[in-house]
Design brief:
Number of domains: 1
CATH topology: TIM Barrel
CATH architecture: Alpha-Beta Barrel
Strand order of the largest sheet: 5-4-3-2-1-9
CATH class: Alpha Beta
Largest sheet: 6 strands, parallel
CATH superfamily: Aldolase class I
Number of helices: 10
Strand content: 15-25%
Order of helices and strands: HEHEHEHEHEEHEHEHEHH
Length: 213
């Protein structure tokens, strides 16, 4: 799978909803009901970060939820890519990008949303064929104003900004021409997961879905 093919797949995934939930799952029992709640609220593209011991098992469980597209976040190495693909991830997300990571995603056929935060990084990824990129950490790196500015010299690139974005600030990004969607963790608060309050998470997902008609 070439970088260009990966970007085509990433484009389709990013167009599914205005928000991609960024999920840190500590308890495997939360995985399936969490995915069901988010999909029911209108957010089918789910990013499970590989930051906890049960993350890969969570991807396996969530991949069984009808209507969902489960991806693996925090991809750093070839081993991460291989494990994510084997767990059933249909896309991958990385905080940055390295030649080894890109090669691994091509090798294993995993569509990658690669991270970039400077004009040089964005241009380097574009040169390889990535027209859809993650902008991370968004709020700490210039936010919507940076992305608006970078859109003039680099209109070929579309972004999914992630990092510090909330329900309140998401519209600032989604109003821009070069923004496909945003990544956000606010739709799955830890308190709600611990209580098993999946209805509250479905409600938050529906609010996020309504950010773009």
């Amino acid at each position: 799978m070439t970088p260009a093919d990966q970007s085509k797949s990433a484009l389709d995934i990013c167009r599914l909803a205005p928000v991609v939930p960024v999920l840190v799952i500590d308890d495997l029992a939360h995985a399936k009901p969490l995915a069901q709640a988010l999909v029911a609220g209108g957010l089918p593209a789910l990013e499970v970060t590989l930051r906890t011991p049960c993350a890969l098992d969570a991807i396996r469980a969530m991949a069984e939820v009808e209507g969902g597209q489960v991806g693996a976040g925090t991809l750093l190495t070839r081993a991460d890519v291989k494990a994510a693909k084997e767990a059933g991830a249909t896309f991958g997300v990385s905080p940055g990008s390295t030649p080894a990571l890109i090669d691994a995603c091509c090798e294993f056929g995993l569509p990658l949303l690669p991270g970039a935060v400077t004009a040089t990084e964005i241009m380097a990824l574009l040169e390889k064929g990535y027209t859809v990129q993650k902008f991370f950490p968004a709020e700490q790196s210039g936010g919507a104003s940076f992305l608006k500015s970078i859109g003039s010299p680099l209109p070929q690139v579309s972004f999914c900004p992630t990092g510090g974005i909330s329900l309140k600030t998401a519209p600032d990004y989604l109003s821009l021409k070069n923004i496909l969607c945003v990544g956000g963790s606010w739709v799955a608060p830890k308190e709600a997961m611990l209580k098993g309050d999946w209805a509250a998470i479905t409600k938050l997902a529906a609010e996020a879905k309504a950010l773009r008609a």
